[in-house]
Design a protein that fits this description.
InterPro entries: DNA/RNA_pol_sf, HTH_animal, RT_dom. It comes from Trichuris suis. With 435 residues, the protein is α+β, with helices and mostly antiparallel strands. The chain folds into four domains: 207 residues, RNA-directed RNA polymerase lambda-3, CATH 3.90.1850.10; 54 residues; 36 residues, no CATH class; 81 residues, no CATH class. The chain has 16 helices and 15 strands. A four-stranded antiparallel beta sheet has the order 4-5-1-6, with helices on one face. The protein starts with 11 loop residues before the first helix and ends with a helix.
Length: 435
């Protein structure tokens, strides 16, 4: 798993230009399901025959198995035939593919234990481009499967979520279809199969049951699942704890047939009671969610938004104050025990982390505060370049009565540091701190 957070190819699909431009090309087919809720809604009306069998196919290691050159050719074809592309970008299909190719083949590197590596094949997990390329490849695989397969082995129902495929097929032909899928790209992709047991087959987080009345569904949990949800004694906002119950209740409403809903709600009640939640709170949240399962939250403040670590007691007062002064308070996760003791993650030096606010103070109490999306060392290199270009900058500081050789403090999240202005320009990669 490669972390692309704050990287050149990161920020998620929403903020990654290449992924954002390419995403409208995929997930338009009726065979593609968005989530468990969509899957359940689409199969409920399907009627099976006594000779049918429920089967799921899973593609092993999808991202690392994607043939990148082959997939890039498909991407170019899709971009070239997309009439809406000029509305999303000024780049040509060729330029788009060249950029994606660079990210996948040239810029596909990561840092581990002090050394840099580059992935040799497939698409990296963690890159926002990888899900798009995976979908491009899987849709083309579908085209090959349904255009080349013998009509007798084709499934009666075919639904896919990324690399998980749900199929209803005539019993006895499921293995033949599996062999056909594996033969489409031999030595590149490999599917596994899971068959129904007593007319039941799990898919995503739903359990599909074949009955005389048709297909029925309910929430699926593995036998080893122990319901380890957020404990009520945890140091979290009350709204987060309510949201956990709401999410479980909404899932029950979305996935359960009416005859299974009461049983699932009872399970939710007992689960959160075991996790220390007051019974009265559990009951109230469940009933509120049932009465309005898709309630949309509306923002009551158009003012600024403040992001703070949660501190029980104080944070609630700040949030209440924000309502009266027209600003909203949101909470972020602070350091926790696991993060403090883990040593397997790569720790990027502060001066090499992008997106910082930095400050330099003078002995006369004047201060220079800056913000940059680059790393601190790169930003200070720019400052040094500017100082060299504008030789008069230091003289102007002296004429104004400012000292450039003092040791004023610089803060990073309340932690004090020390740093000389011009000296710091030269040694910033080693000593500079960020706010």
């Amino acid at each position: 798993m490669m972390s692309k957070v704050e990287g050149a190819r990161g920020q998620g699909t929403k903020f990654n230009p290449l992924a954002k431009i390419s995403f409208p090309l995929v997930k338009k087919r009726t065979s593609t399901v968005k989530d468990s809720k969509t899957f359940v809604e689409e199969i409920r009306t399907f009627r099976t025959s006594p000779t049918d069998i429920l089967v799921s196919y899973d593609l092993k290691d999808l991202f690392t198995s994607i043939p990148i050159p082959y997939t890039l050719n498909i991407l170019h074809e899709l971009l070239y035939t997309d009439s809406t592309l000029p509305g999303r970008t000024k780049l040509s299909p060729f330029q788009m593919v060249q950029l994606v190719s660079f990210c996948m083949l040239e810029g596909n590197f990561f840092h581990f234990q002090g050394r840099y590596f580059r992935q040799q094949g497939g698409a990296p997990m963690g890159s926002p481009l990888s899900p798009v390329l995976a979908e491009v490849f899987m849709e083309r695989l579908e085209d090959h499967a349904f255009s080349k397969a013998d009509h007798n082995i084709l499934p009666h129902l075919f639904k896919r979520y990324v690399d998980d495929i749900f199929v209803i097929i005539e019993s006895g032909r499921e293995e033949t279809f599996l062999n056909f899928l594996n033969a489409l790209f031999p030595n590149i992709i490999s599917f596994t199969i899971e068959k129904e047991v007593c007319g039941r087959l799990p898919f995503l987080d739903s359990l599909v049951m074949r009955t005389s009345e048709g297909l029925k569904t309910r929430v699926y949990r593995k036998q080893t699942h122990s319901d380890p949800y957020l404990h009520f004694s945890s140091h979290h906002p009350r709204a987060v704890m309510r949201a956990v119950i709401q999410g479980m209740t909404r899932r029950a409403v979305d996935l359960c047939e009416p005859e299974f809903l009461a049983m699932e709600l009872h399970h939710i009640y007992q689960t959160f009671k075991t996790n220390g939640y007051p019974p009265r709170l559990i009951h109230a949240v469940i009933q509120q969610t049932l009465s309005n399962p898709r309630r949309q939250r509306t923002s009551t403040s158009n003012g600024p938004r403040i992001l703070l670590p949660y501190y029980k007691g104080l944070s609630e007062k700040l949030q209440k104050l924000g309502r009266t002064l027209n600003f909203s308070v949101c909470y972020k996760r602070g350091p926790y025990l696991r993060s403090l003791f883990r040593g397997d993650k790569v720790k990027v030096p502060l001066n090499e982390q992008p997106g910082v606010v930095y400050g330099v103070r003078c002995s006369c109490s004047a201060a220079s505060i800056g913000e940059t999306g680059f790393t601190l060392s790169r930003r200070f290199s720019q400052h040094i370049s500017h100082l060299r270009r504008y030789i008069r900058a230091e003289q102007e500081l002296e004429d104004a009565g400012h000292s450039t050789t003092t040791t004023p403090p610089i803060c990073r999240r309340g932690m004090a540091g020390v740093f000389e202005f011009l000296l710091g320009m030269n040694v910033s990669p080693k000593v500079a701190d960020v706010l």
